[in-house]
Amino acid sequence: MEKVLTVNELYKSYSDFSLNNINLELLQGDIMGLIGENGAGKTTLMKLLLNLLSPEKGELIVFNKSYADNSSYIKNRIGVVFDENYLHGLLTPKRFNLIMSNIYERWDEKTYYHYLENFNLPLHKKINEFSKGMKVKLNFSVALSHRPNLLILDEATSGLDPVMRIEILDVLKEFVTENNSCVLISSHILSDVERIANKITFMHKGKIVFTEKVSNITQQGNLENIMRSYIKGESSDARSNY
Ligand SMILES: Nc1ncnc2c1ncn2[C@@H]1O[C@H](COP(=O)(O)OP(=O)(O)OP(=O)(O)O)[C@@H](O)[C@H]1O
């Protein structure tokens, strides 16, 4: 399988937090779940991958290219859904079609209307009159309609009811299989991550603790217990060091 993303020894610091020595690899077909406690650094890492933040050190290669000379090539091939809705509230889904077709070289109007219909979204309603679930579905429709080779999803399904979450996760899985794309998805809902991902990366205090295949992890127990015993073990180590 071809490499989609390679991260080597990436560092980023804020005054009281730092991401340290991040190494990551995503291949075509991968769905990687990114998990970790609040403040572990998941969003910061995703912003670095999207070139919204600059690292102090390290190498970031996306589709065998670096952002330095290939920013628009890379951005045209990445789909993004974050927790917050970034779509303008006064616009309608129909109007978005026009805007996105001017932004994305590979915008596919037919696919966009197909998702709107599948998700039962109205064409002419303003987005600030949408429910939270409708906004998430619209965000996914936009993110999937320019045929991205990589999707970066940060808590994208949080706040949705279980039926809607499962519906969206199933659409996502189908998209990856049909398009040989790949996904990095962060979530605190570990059952969702286990449902969809083939690999898991666990972050803790700005570092990657492990990246493992889900099949290896589930042999050791469930994800929640593994995370909890790691964090507990770490605090008892700290106590014994003290
Ligand atoms: N612009 C910023 N300036 C200073 N510190 C920041 C900034 N953005 C994030 N941080 C800090 O970086 C740390 C990691 O935050 P981040 O949002 O990456 O965590 P997270 O794993 O996504 O958390 P959550 O699960 O709560 O969304 C936090 O301590 C946060 O306060």
TrEMBL record:
Single Gene Ontology MF annotation: ATP hydrolysis activity
Entry annotated with the keyword Transport: yes
Keyword Transport belongs to the record: yes
Record key words, sorted: ATP-binding, Nucleotide-binding, Transport
Pfam families: ABC_tran
Occurrences of domain ABC transporter (ranges): 4-230
PANTHER family: ABC TRANSPORTER ATP-BINDING COMPONENT (PTHR42939:SF3), ABC TRANSPORTER ATP-BINDING PROTEIN ALBC-RELATED (PTHR42939)
Protein name: ABC-2 type transport system ATP-binding protein
Biological source species: Paenibacillus algorifonticola
